[in-house]
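G., the chain you wanted modeled:
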Amino acid sequence: MVWYSTRRTPMETTFMQSNTGELQMGQAGEQYERDGYCIADEQIAPDDVLEKALQGMVAVRDGKFDMGMPPTEHPGYDPAVLCKINNPHRSDTGLYGLVTCPQVGRKVAEITGARRVQVWASQLLIKPPGSATAGHVGWHQDRQYWRMWQQDEGLFTAWVALCDVGEELGPMRFVRGSHRWGFLDQGNFFDKDQHKLREDIAVPAGETWEEVSALMPLGGLSVHHCLTYHGSNANVSDAARWSLAVHLRDERAVPVPGDQGYYTAHLDDPQICPVMYEA
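Predicted structure as tokens:
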């Protein structure tokens, strides 16, 4: 059975009202620079691209790979916990089509100001309903897990919604302006105790911890800086939350010299590390 729907819901109006005010305060790039994230709460990719991507998510979840290459990590699907499958875009044409979608690439470049945007990793994320704390993603900075790059600038993530994402689905939550705190190396993606993580993160003097939910309809996306603190809570709805997180670099991001890890070893392979946008 396919646990998703592309049908629009009455809640889409709520999504648009909840986030659009932020974007009206300035251009998308200005918001990204100021807040460390930008929420594009409108459909970006065309319907046919989204439909094929959704079909691809189901196929990859079920162990079917039409590009002849499995994901780098596929732990299987347990409907009681968050499902995270690494690098599915190299395995399925529908997901590859989403990460190379011109409209998505242009939007990411508009937000970040990048002249070149390259995919270097992705994560298929399915947060099942009723998963309680097993569906939590702990507060963290992506940079904690991205040591293969020399610097912080030019590294960001596009998170694409493959269903309508309201508050009850356990959306991603950003800490506004936290990218300006520098690399704190505190927090843990895999820790489910959000309260304890929050207490253990040393917020710099004079700064505040302000959380913002990334609410958006099917086909919307958010982009966040690698130093922006983010996490998510449980899905308390009766439907799964479907999304694809795409990890990206621009023309400034350079691998650590001598790094031979997977994520920098395939930068010249367009199936594994396609260029999403180039000016």
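Residues 1-26 have pLDDT under 50 and may be disordered.

Shout if anything looks off.
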